[in-house]
Amino acid sequence: MELIDELGGDEQAWVDLKSDYYIKGNPYLEAEFVKDVQSLANILDARKDRYLLIGCDEDDGVVGVSEEADNTDAESRHILSFEADDLQDIIDSRLSPGPQLSLYTFNEDGLRFAVLVVNRIKKPPCVTTSKLEDVDDGSVELRENEIWVRKSSGKKEVDRDEFESIVEYRLKQERASLMRGIRRVVELDPESIATIGDLEPNEKAEADITFSIDEEGDYTVSSEVTRDSFTKLSHDLEADIHRRESNPGHYTSLFDLMRYYAGYDKLRLDDDAVRLLAESALKNWIPGILWLDQVEPDQATEVIQSVPDEHSIRTTVCKVLVLLGDRETFDHYLSESNSISNPRFDADNYREQFGQSADSQLEAIGKILDRVEYDDFELEMDYESFDDDELRTLISKVASVWLECGDDDTCKDLKYALVNLELALGTRIF
Fold this sequence. Notes:
Blueprint: H1 2-7, E1 15-18, E2 22-24, H2 27-41, E3 49-54, E4 56-57, E5 61-62, E6 77-78, H3 84-94, E7 95-96, E8 101-108, E9 111-119, E10 127-128, E11 132-133, E12 140-142, E13 148-151, E14 154-157, H4 160-187, H5 190-198, E15 207-213, E16 219-225, H6 232-246, H7 254-262, H8 271-283, H9 289-292, H10 297-304, H11 311-324, H12 327-336, H13 347-351, H14 358-365, E17 371-374, E18 377-380, H15 388-404, H16 408-429
Parallel strand pairs: 1-3
Antiparallel strand pairs: 2-6, 3-9, 4-5, 7-10, 8-9, 11-12, 13-14, 15-16, 17-18
Helix pairs in contact: 7-15, 11-12, 15-16
């Protein structure tokens, strides 16, 4: 409401207003949704978040969305008929890099409205990766390699001057990053440089090395002898943990998270690592059971209580709480969360699963997926035939295939398979 009042009825480049918003049902609607998100992501602005306000207009502020907004069977589907992870899948399949989305719903004076938050991408431009064509009339609503940007008057396809601005922005980013790296290396004392040289990563070294960077950009280098072999994967995890120490809002990216899943048996998983990996998994709508398996159930509950209050994350948390059998924490989530009010979240359906059989729980909270395959990899999702160790191995294998996969739809199925395998593991270990 403060943002709406601040705008005073005017749209800014970083805020788009929609009195109602239908995004699926024909190629034009989906293309407009993709372009709206892309144009916000491509703003060369330091703001982390850009906003699309739904149920708001320039003249009257909050006007509310239509009563049929939640109808999943409508011919033209409203944005509020989708879960946030479904919206993310649409964007990830059409844009590269795909900006992170978060969807929130609110009520004001009896009127329901929503805010779609589009996170800033680190390296613009965000570019379309696929074509959307209307098979009925042959019109092409979206083409590959299009770049749309937002101006205060609306979105437009990039022109030469705007593209040059994006290129210059990227050059400044790379130049600044390079200079920071040079300055930091120069500022290292000789003993630290020697330490780095002595601990060059290799499979035989029995030492670990970590870096931390303060606000001034200076390195602190430390090393310790461990019983574990030094690997690049464990080093990357240590670096992620150190980033979390200086920035509590840091989470591992989906790509790196899949790397950790693929090599989980090579990682040294202390409490800090488990917390980072489990929270990062939940942030990417993955239960994180493989990581929560490393701690006691009460610790697992404490970890999942610390994730951000975002609808899609809370939905995944509720799934884990069902597997944990923690009805008290589940009810607490529903009473305290500001983001779990989406009408498509059926709380009663989840409540009914407490104490039910593993098959019932998987059917109620898992994704419908019988098999997944890519190249030579093929997996029948027959959960009863897998023991606990096989489930862990398959989770790691699916992550490895995901890393190699170049097809967006198959990547989505592989991610769903990993989610289901983790849920199946959760029914056993919890």
